[in-house]
Amino acid sequence: MTLGVIGKKVGMTQIFNEEGLAVPVTVIKVDPIVVTQVKTVETDGYNAIQVGTVAAKEKHLTKAQIGHFAKNKLENFRHLQEFRVDNPQDYTVGQQIELSVLSDVQKVDVTGTSIGKGFQGTVKRHNFSRGPMAHGSKNHREPGSIGAGTTPSRVIKGKRMAGNMGNERVTITKLKLVKVDSENSLILIKGSVPGSEGKLVTIVPSRTKWNV
Q1: What is the pLDDT of residues 170-202, one digit of tens each?
Q2: What is the average per-residue pLDDT within 42-46?
Q3: pTM for this structure?
Q4: What is the DSSP string of the chain?
Q5: Cβ–Cβ contacts within 10 Å for residue 187, how many?
Q6: Which of 20, 144, 180, 181 is the most exposed place for a label (fewest CB within 10 A)?
Q7: Please, what is the Cα angle at 199 between 33 and 116, to 5 degrees?
Q8: 154 exposed, middle or buried (CB, 10 Å; 0-12, 13-18, 19+)?
C-alpha cells in the first residue's frame, strides 16, 4: 500500500464535465490527517507510517491509546491506520498529510466497510438463477442440492449458501479521481464507493499497471 488519505463519505451528487455530460460522483470529506508514528525496518521490521484522524475524547479511548498520543504530544484521534511506505525517513511525528499526495493521480483504490444487508438468500447474495415460476414448481428461489448424499456425505466447506450479506471490508479499484478540492478538503470520485454516508474510507493511488 502506498500513502493515501482517509476521508468520510458525504454522499453522492453529479457534476458536468467539459462535454456537458453529467458525471455521478461520490463526495469524500477529508479531516486533518496527522502522522502519529514512524515505523522502520530497524525498529519494527517494516517501513510504514501510522496516521490518525477524527478528534476524539479520552473517554472513547483506551489507556494504551491515550499514552501513545501523550508520549508524542499529540491530540487524541479516534481512528488510526498504517500506510506502507518506502521512505519513512521523509516523515516526522506530528506532520500533517496533505491532499497533494493525490494531486497527480488519475485513478484510485477505495476501501471501506460495505452496507450490511442482513441474512439473505442465494439469489440475492450469490446471484443464483431462480427456478421455474410455474404453479407446479417447488423451487422458485431455493438453493437446490448442496452436495451428494452417500459420498462425501457432508457439505463441502465454502459452499455458497444463504447467510449474512454485506458489512465486510471491500476495495473497489481503478475508480476515476474527478477532482481534488484542497481548499474545502473534498475529493470527488466517479461512481459509488463502499459504505454508507458518514463512514470512513481509505483512498490510495491505484497500482501502476492499473493507473492508465
Answers
A1: 999 999 999 999 899 999 999 999 999 999 999
A2: 93
A3: 0.85
A4: ----EEEEEEEEEEEE-TTS-EEEEEEEE---EEEEEEE-HHHHSS-EEEEEEEE--GGGS-HHHHHHHHHTT---EEEEEEEE-S-GGG--TTPEEPGGGGTT-SEEEEEEEPPP-EEE-HHHHH-PPP---STT-S-SS-----S-SSSS-SPPTT---SEEES-SEEEEEEEEEEEEETTTTEEEEES--SS-TT-EEEEEEPPTTT--
A5: 26
A6: 20
A7: 150
A8: exposed
Instruction: Write down the pLDDT at residue 100.
Output: 87
Confidence bin at 209 (pLDDT 50/70/90)? low
Cell numbers of 57, please? 475524547
